[in-house]
Design a protein that fits this description.
Length: 382
Amino acid sequence: MSSPLRWGILATGGIAVTFTKDLLKDPSTRGASDVKHTVTAAASSSSASRANEFLKEVGAPSEAKGYGSYAELVKDPNVDIVYVATPHSHHFQNAMLCLEAKKHVLCEKAFTTNAAQAKLLVDTAKKNNLFLMEAVWIRFFPICQELRKMASDGKIGDIRRVFADLSLGVDVESKFGTKHRMTNMDLAGGAMLDLGIYPITWVFQFLYHIQSPQHQKPPKVASSITKYAPTGADEMTSMIFTFPATNAQGIATTNFRVSYDPDDKNTAGPAIRIQGTKGEIQVYGPAYRPTHYRIIPAVDKDTGKDKAGFEFQDVTRDIPGHGMFWEADECFRCLKDKKLESDGMSWSESIVIMDAMDEVRKQNSLVYPEKIESTKYPLEDF
Ligand SMILES: NC(=O)C1=CN([C@@H]2O[C@H](COP(=O)(O)OP(=O)(O)OC[C@H]3O[C@@H](n4cnc5c(N)ncnc54)[C@H](OP(=O)(O)O)[C@@H]3O)[C@@H](O)[C@H]2O)C=CC1
Ligand SMILES: O=C1OC[C@@H](O)[C@H](O)[C@H]1O
């Protein structure tokens, strides 16, 4: 495909601005010469003027159209793919709108509110021969690709355990209150769907994704949730995933009240530890935007002799922007190769993860309002 991929942006909130600015960066600044992106339209559910304001703010081409409804956006013949950037409560309805209008979709995380909705999106994409991907952007960071390759090449031996955390350390009452999308159950608020998806992704990258197909079995789940009493959203969630083919364990935690990095200086240590029989990979920086890793070789505990066969390494990888362009580049490449799904974030893996999060919610009686858990499409008055 030599012409640019033409993006439509559905919603104009915080992440839509960040993503679109990244998308419009010159690909050569990240060393990519095979991709081209443009923005041809954006829509805001509030007004066309908000959409036009957004297009100006992100520096979109002057011909890009601003719409006052999502329904108009998906009818635009100059849009190839839609980036869905609404709260997770709305992903199912919004992504269905796009797929039914025969548009390819990149849908923000968490994919949907439950696995049943995710399965329906996948069925609809398949039926309509469309590309669909959950926007778990870190999967496409070169640093993550490098670490997955290193681990699958056996550098740290058999991986037995992964610890991963993404916790904010905020005063929930003053920072979010009850209406913010992070705590509002009507918007599928809560730590797990918003933040927990990252530690879960780290666990899955190493204990599921890089495993051979016969080892890619859904994990057994044990979990505990503490709720934010005023709304019932989860504010502290800890999960243990045991993968049946290897018996390896992934411990994923997320928490609004304490931080993975309380002093913003990494004094607390790595946010992620990938532990193998020959050594350990430690990842620093927030789980959603890692920039730095260490590899620690293991020694034999009895003899003190090296077990690893490699030296300690401390590596920093700069990100030439926010880092969201890499997932957009993946969309371009998949479409160029006529692939409906990405190997980096496959449909089946998104569904296995949604299933695991459903199980965490079931174990802790965490239920969202019926309307946003519904698999009916379209839902009136949504
Ligand atoms: N990948 C990443 O790094 C990040 C991803 N996210 C994900 O992106 C999604 C959106 O998050 P974020 O941009 O921070 O959220 P914002 O609240 O900033 O924006 C959400 C936008 O969705 C639209 N919207 C439609 N219906 C509603 C509704 N009922 N309530 C609120 N907004 C609505 C609005 O746009 P309009 O009025 O134009 O229609 C709104 O501006 C979430 O799913 C989140 O998980 C968020 C932050 C970082
Ligand atoms: O995806 C995300 O990553 C960054 C966080 O600050 C944000 O809440 C979350 O949605």
